[in-house]
Amino acid sequence: MRRRTPAGIAVAAVVLLAGCTGTEGAARDTPAADGMIGFLDYGGFGGGAEPQANYNPYLDATRLGATDYLFERLMVFNTYACTPQPWLATEYSWTDPRTLVFKIRQGVKWNDGQPFTAKDVAFTYNLIKQHEALDTQGLGRYLESVDGTADTVTMTFKSAGASVFTLAVNVPIVPEHIWSKVPDPVTFVNADKPVGTGPFTVKAMNRQQLTIARNPGYWQAGKVKVQEIRFHSADSQGAVEQLKLSRGAYDTNAMFVPDIKKAYVDRDPKNHHYWYPPGGTISFYMNLTKPPFDDLAFRKALTTAFDHRTIIDKAQLGYVKQASQTGLVIPGQEAWLPQGIQDQGRIGYDQAAADAALTAAGYRKDAEGRRLGKDGKPLAFTFKTPSGWTDWLSAAQIIVKNLKALGFDVDLETPTPETYDRDRAIGSYDALFGVHGGSCNMFRNFSEPLGADQGAPIGKKALSNFVRWNDKETERLLEELRVATDESAQKQAVAGLSKIMTDRVPVIPIWYGAKWFQYKTSKAVGWPNEQDPYAAPGDNLLIVTRLKPA
């Protein structure tokens, strides 16, 4: 059975937490008297089908997962609640909308003993500006200059830079004294004793296992209680990996398991746990250039038409949560909710209400129970979902059933994923599923699905506004959010955009994609979970500095 990886899963989590088991060396498997954890077994170490030693943090396709523990960033986000944590920078401030100033942490050393300075930070940002292939987030097109003096780094943007703050703080910092001597940083694999400021260093690597060891000179070494982390080769999260997970071979992993309670938790209820926090939003997308989808009253009527509970329980195996109509990921982003939103923007399934609202909007039924358009003709349209994506197909079948129960003539089409992506981009569809949001960049969360500059005329490829939403008030609010450096101003703009989502219904959110995360507490405790969501799966540095011996 083929499943699509749900939206919103951080790439780092997939690279970090997918794998196998094994042991090596003399590290201890039980907590020692000194309060340390001998080693933890994580999942796959990334690097593609034929992994090689590669610790260049900018080569996303082939770098190894251990890179996340070698190099650090100016700020680290708790991507569940979207709160930035001071890291290599202790604080930041906007002196004007184009100028962002960081105070750099003092006393930090590279793992070769050299001091870390503001010059390293400036060098790093200028490096990715100079080499576009290293600029994995596309930050360079926004940056005008980066300067480092004493304990301060100043970023100057070409225009108001608040909308790219999450990109600006998320660049792995590399040492100038090493990388300035590299002939070609675009092909540099950094395989020989990579130098970083992070909590671990590379100990050993072969085709089956990658081991990283605690860095005793780390600037917050007192918070790191893990002596080693061992990553393992994996078989693409197949049956073998699920079997190893169920047997407790991993201390943590991130994979889809059909019945996680039976396959994993029930094997050791005391120590085997999972937490699947929400990621990106999967929504019912309508082609807004076509009737009846161009009618607000029609769209609002459909907000109660879909049986979320059945979709969640049957199509998504109970692993996910119903999405908020606001476009925000709840509960993590509830601090951004506008006041007065009932039930955090979740709209319940009520077929009778949908039927009545459709009739009131002018879409009555005929004597045969067929839903008619305003022209008096039966309403017929198609719903598309990619072939092979079994969870989406199951959800689509429920959606179609719900629509047929309201009198619509709906055909379910299952094109190849490639055809699906093309048809969605050029607007060759009536209705389908779309994914949006889920990041900590609020501007992108709303501009990508709703921004006019992300759309295109029918027949031309849209970047991400596949429904072709074009609204002056939306554009005004997006511009306010783009330039706002003050959080209260940002929240005011987000509140306005959330209200547009609820009042104008450009899309209809259905469920949140899950971030898979399994963890074991026989050796280590302090993993993030629903009761203590101090981090999301994949927030690796936040997690490893909170783990303690069981």
From TrEMBL:
A Pfam family assignment: SBP_bac_5
Source superkingdom: Bacteria
UniProt-listed CDD domains: PBP2_TmCBP_oligosaccharides_like
Signal peptide residues on this chain, from the entry's feature table: 1-26
Tagged with keyword Signal: yes
UniProt KW keywords: Signal
InterPro entries given in the database record: Peptide/Ni-bd (IPR030678), SBP_5 (IPR039424), SBP_5_dom (IPR000914)
PANTHER family found in the cross-reference section: ABC-TYPE DIPEPTIDE_OLIGOPEPTIDE TRANSPORT SYSTEM, PERIPLASMIC COMPONENT, PERIPLASMIC BINDING COMPONENT OF ABC TRANSPORTER
Protein name, entry field: ABC transporter substrate-binding protein
